Amino acid sequence: MKKISLRKDAEKALKMYEKLEPYGIQEMLLKTLVKKYSDHTNRAAVDTKVKLLNLFYSTGIQAVSKMTDNIVGIKDIDARLEQGDLTLVPEIATLKLQGGERFNYSFATKYCALHQPEKFPIYDSIVADTFESLFVKGYFPKYTYSRSKSKSPNTFTKVEFAAKLKEYNFFVEFYHYFMELFDLTNRTVREIDSYIWGAFKIAGEEFEIEKMAQLDKSKIVEYSI
């Protein structure tokens, strides 16, 4: 397959994304909050970060106080965020509730990205749907789509691939592979997230990545927990 560059497509989308409201205002507020309360020594500050992130990005956290307690109780969380410790994501995501557990995967990636945006790529439904569609269409030579289960490494059914994206180590590896494959390494991880999200949410414009993925925009779920 001929090498495809999405560099100009990303540039176009990001210029338009910067003008979107209220997303720019929400991001500014979160960045300001994290700059003032970057660590996890103040429970009230952590609780505010959790609440605002949950509100702005519709991550569906209902037991907010328990999520705050979960995050505050994680040992060495600030050092691990600084180090880009990917095991933090499932640790934050796993919330023990009465009657079972809830795995708040997308929220956990967003929370880590809020503090270290270049070390923790964000997982949400738009990114996942885009990756899955491009995978099935054969855009990723490193990975093979199969209609049935296979023992071959890097060969997956669509369901298996979707499940693999919820393994954060794999997701991060695949995210960087996507950036390298489509000539996007001149952009930051956070910019790529805005590019993919914006391409499917900016009204009145069509982007190259949309044409490639061919998703039904009316069925796109904006966020997934």
Task: Map the helices and strands.
Layout: H1 7-17, H2 23-36, H3 43-56, H4 64-72, H5 77-83, H6 88-93, E1 94-97, E2 100-103, H7 105-115, H8 125-136, E3 144-145, E4 155-156, H9 158-164, H10 168-181, H11 189-201, H12 208-213
Parallel strand pairs: 3-4
Antiparallel strand pairs: 1-2
Give your account of this protein's structure.
Helix 1 (7-17) packs across helix 11, helix 2 (23-36) runs antiparallel to helix 3 and helix 3 (43-56) crosses helix 4. Strand 1 and strand 2 (100-103) form a beta hairpin. 55% of the residues lie in helices and 5% in strands. With 225 residues, the chain is mainly alpha-helical. It has twelve helices and four strands. The chain has two domains: 7-19 and 121-219, no CATH class; 23-115. It has a two-stranded antiparallel ribbon. The longest helix is centred in the first third of the chain and has 14 residues, at 23-36.
Q: How many helices?
A: 12
Please state the average pLDDT score. 92
- Residues in helix, %: 55-70%
- Overall geometric form: globular
Tell me about the biggest sheet? 2 strands, antiparallel
Order of helices and strands: HHHHHHEEHHEEHHHH
Tell me the Rg in angstroms.
18 Å
Strand order of the largest sheet: 1-2
Give the number of DSSP strands.
Answer: 4
Number of domains: 2
Summing up helix and strand content along with how strands pair, one would put the structural category as mainly alpha
β-strand percent reads: 5-15%
Low-confidence stretches: none
N-end to C-end Cα span: 34 Å
Oligomer: single chain
